[in-house]
Fold:
Amino acid sequence: MEISKEQVRVLCEVQGLSVPEDELDDIATRMSTWLTALDQIEVELGEEMNRVDPIPPLFPADDRDL
Structure:
C-alpha cells in the first residue's frame, strides 16, 4: 500500500503533530513499507489472524515494581 506525502501531511495534522516538510517523504516511505509488509502477513496468515484475540499493549503492574 502506497502512502503519499500529502496523506502523511493530513494524518499528522489530524493528530496535531508538527512534522517538518523535509521529513514527510521519509515518513511516507516508511509507512508504505510497513503497510505493504502487513498486507503480506495477512495474505500468509489469512483467517488465522481473525481467530486470535489481540494482545493489549499494556500489561498489569507487577507487585515487585511498586
